[in-house]
Specification:
The chain has about 200 residues and is mainly beta. Helices cover about 5% and strands about 25% of the residues. The chain has two helices and ten strands. The strands form three sheets. Strands 1-9-3-4 form a four-stranded antiparallel beta sheet, with no helix packed on it. Strands 2, 7, 8 and 10 form a four-stranded antiparallel beta sheet that branches. The two termini are about 25 Å apart.
């Protein structure tokens, strides 16, 4: 999937190869270590690959699940929990303008977003990586599934500093391809840093 000259940070990324759709069909766990306690917001560097379902848009490739906390399961540990037929509070997706990660938050835009969800944006995606902040899906039912359109953030206590923490995500749709997650106490890095600033300041360390 990735070109030999890929811009992925470590020359590889987390591919979602199938099925085209399947709630909690697979899981992957990262281990992260923090040096400072705090309330950390979640950012992602990623690309998109068309899965063939609807070539006019990338909104059939654009979702996965995040956990409610470190060392928690993204399917069973939300309240209420998800299952193979129902989303939960960890549902994260790319559409639409209010919270979707295909709508990239604009540098110094104070919350404005640019829509990159259309299939006409293949030159923007298909192996080209970009950053965005992650929010819960705006389509969540707040009564039966969880809060919609809120930023994912995780509290690191003093006791957690220096101790490896599991961060487990779960599958939903084929196509979104993750390079990096970044946890920051900055509530809106996309507003204050350009995409180029992110690459130069983070990937060259």
């Amino acid at each position: 999937m990735l070109a030999t000259n890929t811009g992925a940070s470590m020359q590889g990324a987390l591919g979602t190869l199938g099925p085209a759709f399947g709630l909690f069909a697979d899981f992957v766990t990262y281990q992260v270590v923090f040096s400072t306690p705090g309330d950390y917001y979640t950012y992602m560097r990623f690309t998109m690959f068309e899965n063939g379902g609807n070539v006019n848009t990338y909104t059939s490739e654009d979702s996965f699940f995040l956990p409610p906390d470190f060392n928690k399961d993204p399917e069973t540990d939300w309240n209420p929990p998800g299952n193979s037929g129902n989303n939960d509070g960890g549902y994260c997706e790319g559409c639409c303008g209010g919270a979707g990660f295909l709508f990239i938050l604009d540098y110094q835009g104070n919350g404005t977003r640019t829509d990159h969800s259309s299939g006409a944006n293949s030159n923007y995606w298909e192996g080209n990586f970009h950053w965005n902040q992650l929010y819960s899906s705006q389509f969540l039912n707040p009564v039966t599934q969880g809060a919609p359109g809120v930023p994912f953030h995780y509290v690191v206590t003093p006791a957690m500093v220096g101790v490896p923490q599991n961060f487990t995500i779960a599958y939903r749709e084929q196509g979104v391809t993750i390079d990096l997650f970044l946890f920051s106490t900055h509530t809106n890095m996309m507003n204050d840093y350009t995409q180029i600033n992110w690459i130069s300041s983070l990937l060259t360390r």
